Amino acid sequence: MSKYKIYVTEESVTKELTREEVVEMLQNDVATVTFTKADGTERVMECTLLQEVLSERITGLLQGAPDKNTKAPNPDTIAVYDIPSDGWRSFRLDAVKSISFPTSIFTDDGIVYPTFE
Q1: Which one of 12, 76, 113, 117 is most buried, by most CB atoms within 10 A?
Q2: What are the beta bridge partners of residue 30?
Q3: Domain coordinates of the chain in residue numbers?
């Protein structure tokens, strides 16, 4: 099982995390993930796998959701729901610079998604 060195902002420490640990964090919270895209640019994404958020936002968006039946997931990549973009995106774990869990996320609609501390 591969481990990835990821800086966790709130703890001010770099941790070695498995893919499963990162997925679990995203299933329990909304995160800000900073990573380097394939073209070399930096991307900051507010994303989650939190069921509460997915249930509210996913209506009508299933066409863009990753199809779990077509191929095995890439063990180095995680597909997440990008809240501001209102759609599915992914990132490579080996490209993550940091991950943080802000106290709340505000959307254009004024919705606040609480996070768990």
Answers
A1: 113
A2: 48
A3: 3-103
- Summarize pLDDT for 65-88 with one digit per residue, the tens: 555 556 667 889 999 999 888 889
Alpha-carbon separation of residue 117 from 42, 45, 101, 112 (angstroms) = 27, 19, 8, 15
Helix (H) or strand (E) holding 21: helix 19-27
Burial code of 22-53, b = ≥16 C-beta within 10 A, e = fewer? Answer: bbebbeebbbebbbeeeeeeeeebbbbbbeeb
- Dig out the tokens for 8 from the structure: 């966790």
Tokens of 93: 């774990």
Q: How many other C-beta atoms are found inside a 10 Å radius of the C-beta of residue 93?
A: 21
- pTM for this model (two decimals): 0.77
Q: Retrieve residue 43's tokens.
A: 């991307």
